[in-house]
Design goal:
This protein has helices at about 30-35, 40-50, 55-70, 75-95, 105-110; strands at about 10, 15. The protein is mainly α.
Length: about 120
């Protein structure tokens, strides 16, 4: 599926544009909406960025997860650590292989590299 415009995630047959009313804004952790959400809820609000194929979205997700991790306590902190760790893994794959599967990426996955269930 071809990528949409910057700031857009394509998911099967729908687009989600970050910062739009439909998404609720990508700046979770930076405004009044954030105060109404528990840390674990903020993690799920940022999660769509983790599934983007745009490196800039992964940079934003890592920043947001880091911000949430700093503020979280107890079990929420442990959960936030997991989200942050997995975001960095996703980001690393996008940075290393780009958007399209390359022969090198296929060898990586076929050799037991992380595929995130894909």
């Amino acid at each position: 599926m071809p990528p949409g415009p910057p700031g857009t995630l394509r998911s099967k047959d729908q687009n989600v544009t970050f910062g739009s009313p439909r998404h609720g804004g990508a700046e979770v952790g930076a405004g009044e909406h954030d105060r109404a959400l528990a840390p674990v809820e903020r993690l799920f609000a940022v999660m769509p960025l983790m599934h983007s194929e745009q490196l800039s979205d992964h940079d934003e997700a890592a920043r947001q997860f880091s911000r949430i991790l700093e503020a979280a306590e107890g079990a929420d902190h442990e959960t936030a650590e997991g989200f942050h760790k997995h975001e960095l893994m996703h980001r690393g794959l996008i940075e290393r292989f780009g958007r399209e599967s390359t022969p090198e990426e296929r060898v990586h996955v076929e050799g037991g590299g992380e595929s995130f269930g894909q």
